[in-house]
Every structure is written in structure tokens, then in C-alpha cells.
């Protein structure tokens, strides 16, 4: 218990440092997985497809939960807001585990469509990826502040301001991710692409869940 209290006190005293460290760990896990630095069990094509669908379900649930959390805080239901946002954060961590497993042990998909639809997909995918990267530190910072401060203490922090940024980036990223998921998996055809190509060929071969 004493160790937990010390960690809590240090995180409360230096939330930006905790946010930076956790964000860098998250980025490193993603980059390391795409670069094939970390070992993963090889997955069958069927498993990759199942994971793609499961990830979409998790992200859709996270999106709904975030919107519920926003509704709760507007009604000043702080406890429900906290529960909703921590649930959404937990779902995103679950998404990260499944996504890294799918990429590291399986493959990514390239959409097979040309013309304006392809460009629309590319634009939405680019915004989705950018917002996903941006949302990492702001979401983590909001969560760290929320976990280390009481509701009354949070009024003297940047939690509300950072939280609003996190919600906008997070929800738009999730929404666009779901749209591109539907386009890729249920509207148009796709072909597999090696995960190592993602960092070098994203502009020519749009990749998604």
C-alpha cells in the first residue's frame, strides 16, 4: 500500500512526466511492432479477420462510452463521467493489445478501389492516423490527472481543457476509423500487405484495421 501511495503522490506531483513516459512507451510499442522488432505468434488469415472485426466492435463501444461520459459531465454526474471515461480508456488499451497482435502476427489490408472513393478513403485514413497519434498524450494526461486528483482538485488543473481536446481528437479518430473499417472490410475489396510496408508505402497502399 505504501508503494502505491508513493506512486500516486509522484504521479500527482508530476503528471506531465508520467504522461510523457507512458506516451513514449505507447509510441515505441506501435513502431516496434510495425518494424518487426517484437516477436509475435503467427496468426492465420481467419484470425486476422476476426481480430479486425473485434477491434471495430471495441472501438465502436469506446466511442459510445466517450459520448456517454461527455453527457454525464455536462449533467455534473462526476462519478458516472469518471466511470465512462475510464471504461473507454480500458477499451482503448484492449484495442491496442489486439491491434499490435494482429499487426505483429498477421498482416494489414490495402483497399482495392480507385478514383474519388480511394482519395476520400486516403484523406479519412490520414486524419484518423494523425488524430490517433495526437490523442495519445492528451488522453493519457487527462486520465492521469483524473486518477490522481479529487473532483475539487481537478478544478485547479488543466483536466477540463485537456479533456475537451482529448474528446474531440479521440471521438473523431474513432469515428473515421470505423468509417474506413466499413469501407475496407464490408464495402470494397482488399488485399493483404506486410506490416513492414506500412511505414514506407502508406501513401500508395492505404492500410487499415
UniProtKB/TrEMBL annotation:
Pfam families: DUF420. This is Putative membrane protein. Keywords: Membrane, Transmembrane, Transmembrane helix. The keyword Glycoprotein does not apply. It comes from Halomicrobium zhouii. It comes from the Archaea. The chain crosses the membrane at residues 16-37, 49-72, 84-101, 121-144, 165-184.
Amino acid at each position: 500500500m505504501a508503494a502505491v501511495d508513493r506512486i500516486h503522490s509522484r504521479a500527482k506531483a508530476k503528471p506531465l512526466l508520467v504522461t510523457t513516459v507512458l506516451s513514449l512507451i505507447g509510441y515505441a510499442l506501435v513502431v516496434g511492432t510495425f518494424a518487426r522488432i517484437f516477436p509475435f505468434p503467427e496468426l492465420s488469415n481467419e484470425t486476422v479477420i476476426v481480430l479486425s472485426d473485434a477491434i471495430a466492435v471495441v472501438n465502436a463501444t469506446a466511442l459510445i462510452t466517450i459520448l456517454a461520459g461527455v453527457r454525464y459531465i455536462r449533467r455534473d454526474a462526476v462519478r458516472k463521467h469518471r466511470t465512462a471515461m475510464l471504461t473507454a480508456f480500458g477499451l482503448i488499451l484492449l484495442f491496442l493489445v489486439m491491434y499490435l497482435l494482429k499487426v505483429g502476427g498477421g498482416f494489414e489490408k490495402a483497399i482495392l478501389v480507385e478514383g474519388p472513393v480511394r482519395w476520400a478513403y486516403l484523406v479519412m485514413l490520414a486524419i484518423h492516423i494523425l488524430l490517433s497519434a495526437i490523442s495519445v498524450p492528451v488522453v493519457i494526461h487527462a486520465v492521469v490527472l483524473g486518477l490522481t486528483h479529487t473532483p475539487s482538485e481537478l478544478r485547479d488543473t488543466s483536466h477540463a481543457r485537456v479533456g475537451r481536446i482529448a474528446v474531440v481528437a479521440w471521438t473523431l479518430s474513432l469515428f473515421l476509423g470505423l468509417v474506413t473499417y466499413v469501407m475496407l472490410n464490408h464495402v470494397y475489396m482488399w488485399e493483404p500487405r506486410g506490416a513492414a510496408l506500412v511505414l514506407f508505402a502508406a501513401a500508395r497502399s492505404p492500410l487499415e484495421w
